[in-house]
Design goal:
With 379 residues, this protein is mostly helical. The protein has one domain (5-372). Helix content is 67%, strand content 3%. It contains 14 helices and three strands. The chain has helices spanning 13-33, 43-64, 70-74, 76-93, 113-131, 139-158, 162-179, 183-207, 216-226, 237-248, 260-263, 275-308, 312-336, 354-372, and strands at 95-97, 100-105, 110-111. Strands 1-2-3 form a three-stranded antiparallel β-sheet, with helices on one face. A hairpin with a 4-residue loop joins strand 2 (100-105) and strand 3 (110-111). The chain starts with 12 loop residues before the first helix and ends in a 7-residue tail after the last helix.
Amino acid sequence: MKWNRKLLNNVNWYILIVTLLLICIGIFAISSAVEVNKADSIGMQYIKKQLISAIMGIIVIIILQFFDYHIFEHFSDIIYFTTIAVLGIIALNGITVKGAKAWISLGFFNFQPSELAKVSLILVLAAVIDNKREELKYFTGFIKPCIYALIPFVLIILQNDLGTALVLLAILIGMLFVGGAKIRFMLIIFGGGFLVLLLLIVSHILFDTPLFFFKEYQLNRLIVFINPHIDPTGSGYHIIQSQIALGSGRLFGKGLFSGTQNQLGFVPEKHTDFIFSVIGEEFGFIGVLVVVALYLFLLWQILNIARNARDNYGRLVAVGVATMFFFHVLENIGMTMGLMPITGLPLPFISYGGSSMISSLAAIGLVTNINIRRKKIMF
């Protein structure tokens, strides 16, 4: 552990301020979603848990600043195999919540290790890609980071958590691209994989063949994504109600605690997956615009840190974090608008969820760590 007060001069306060603003917006939105304004509401329990998670995450940010981020590169193998072991145990004996066998009980709350697995994979892939920069020019070198990502991907699929598995895939693609992998290799592997998946889905629909990696309800989500009115009271219900909520907010919204779709319970999972619908209905297009602008500013700052990083490892970690946040925001906002399939991914810092909050703040801690050490400290 090494610390010098001069490192404080390199702190990116913009990232920390934007992150806190997003957390505050989330607290207000969750307050309305869990109906703390009603006399018989137990909503304050959700708010307290969210605040505790945020405080724990902020403590993680502070702790991370005392360690040079290269320590994660040195211990990348330990990080990786520990992550694989935990994911394997969860896949076999995890607690099932809302269909996903992805949770472990810590006594006072349930934790989702796959959330931290995303951050772990970023650290591990950055080390692998950094060490194999020259080999990425060849197909054999390209395959190694893919294998590193494939194992946790499969274990998380076995936990019935497709959304988080797709985040790992997005992280891998983003980091390989920035790491210098050949575009044709990426097209062969990922394009080929997409075509195989498409053929499996078509074959299942036409000939009722087994559908590996997919549950039937997940396939239904893909189908209603194309046209939610095929099943308006079933698989398409979430999208239809979310679109109604967003549209009814108009320019300035109906006001906090005044969203009818939200307060009357028409929007499902409104404090987690569909929190953006609550924001759209109660704060309108202006509120939505503010949230999107904050995310874009956050991503811009993280990419600036990647560009100014002292070395390739730091640059890759920052790019991995930016890719993770970008995919989360794109998928979550997209699914509430009917532009992306429903996968159950939370909106970073805003959706209710302790595991997501802590892992997201840990990722912020990594990029701020990279930023404060972007220059050599002169004594």
